[in-house]
Amino acid sequence: MGGDGDIVPRVTPASADERRGRPLREVALLFLRLGCVAFGGPAAHIAMMEDEVVRRRGWLTREEFLDLLGATNLIPGPNSTEMAIHIGHRRAGWPGLVVAGACFILPATLMVAALAWGYVRFGRLPAVAGILYGLKPVMIAILVQALWLLGRTAIKSRGLAVLALAALAASLLHVHELVVLLAAGAVALAVRWRRVPAAAALVPGLAVAAAASSPGVISVFLIFAKIGSLLYGSGYVLIAFLRADLVERLGWLSAGQLLDAVAVGQITPGPVSTTATFVGYLVAGWAGAAAATLGIFLPAFLFVAASGPLVPRLRRSPRAGAFLDGVNVASLALMAAVAYPLGRAALVDLWTLGIATAAAVLLLLVRVSSVWVVALGALVGVLAGGG
């Protein structure tokens, strides 16, 4: 007991606001970092997220991650961005939903906007062959790691293994991704309950058309909001939308400018859909870049906000859980189907084979963070001189 002159130290517990703010800061820092280093397309981005939020941080179990992946594949929009939004919502609630998506998109958006400015000013893109040369094989290793770890959780029975192989075959035969996912869910449900559900359908909730003939800011926003609301599948589907709308129908871009825009989306980290930022700048300056970016990503936030809270409830339902099991193995099959052409493009010589092998060892055996492996791959690619 202290007297009148004693000073008794007091330990003040963290306030409720501080406790609530910590997960939000964690989400912001993680997705800002991933937004700076996540090269290689949606499948590779999702693989990096699995490494960070399942293996390293334990924010989600593998089954929870797979459920979110299945839900992401069932809604239109950029898949890796939607996964970031889902994870942010699970970790930090509604503020996390916004912060995770915005932080994942922001670094690439700023890089692409800067490249668009340089492209318009100087008429060409910078040389980045060495970086891509080292990054591509690393992304193949990250993708293989994710397929192995997630597959061990998703494939719970021989029936699901057969279903995964069937979904892979269908994907390689160019069956539409949504058809593969819904069919796999329906088959899994039928096998579990000995009957096929009455109907399986997914209708995008937003379809906006822009009929303007000149590239005003509102027209740019509406065009990309329409694309973001209807986009399923890989980046090649985005190219098809852009070519049909902006090159052929509206004449806002030349075919060469479209190819340059797509190249910028691939040489920068983060979602490939930031190609929209480049296109928006070309047709309407800085305001166009902002409008295109907002347009293509806004539907993803809305779709995840609508569907995300339903995923845990679906897992608790035996029938919906069976459907999700089918969708999950089909999602992995789609990732595996993407890995094949990516591998052919990335593993072009002994150097790239060596980079991929070393990356796989570091990831699977040494368990080095994928962020450091990506940085090392880029450095080796530059030192090797791009092949």
Describe this structure in words.
The chain contains 15 helices and no strands. It is globular, with a radius of gyration of 22 Å. Mean pLDDT is about 80; it is low at about 1-10 and about 195-215. It has helices spanning about 15-35, 40-55, 60-75, 80-120, 130-155, 160-170, 175-195, 215-230, 235-250, 255-265, 275-305, 310-315, 320-345, 350-365, 370-385. By secondary structure, it is an all-alpha fold. The termini are far apart. The chain has a domain at about 215-305. Helices cover about 75% and strands about 0% of the residues. The relative contact order is 0.17.
Q: Outline the low-pLDDT stretches.
A: 1-9, 195-213
Average pLDDT works out at 79
Strand proportion, as a percent range, falls in: under 5%
Biggest sheet layout: none
Q: Encode the helix/strand succession as letters.
A: HHHHHHHHHHHHHHH
Secondary structure tally: strands? 0
The helix/strand class is: mainly alpha
First-last Cα distance: 75 Å
Number of helices: 15
